[in-house]
Request: fold
Amino acid sequence: MAILSIQSHVVYGYAGNTAAVFPLQRLGREVWAVNTVEFSNHTGYGAWRGSVLGAELATELVEGIADRGVLGTCEAVLSGYMGDAAVGNAVMDALRRVREVSPKALY
Reply:
């Protein structure tokens, strides 16, 4: 079973998908990581570089996963730092799509 993880990615340090993917994989889960931002480091350092990747990309990537016909194997949707309020809508749309084919999926 898989987990759709929609959250940030940092190059230096561990936060968001950078922190979540490996432990979940070690627990035997397949993780589909959709990154909402690509930052040099956690924003808690006070300064960072990088970009918010945006709702459109998140939606497009989830659509690509759906095209593979595997959303029915998704057991949970995990979300974190979004970088932009519009990404929240993309997360909720992804959850709706997952639950259409996997009604017991957790959020």
Notes: The helical segments are 17-26, 55-67, 85-101. The first helix runs from residue 17 to 26.
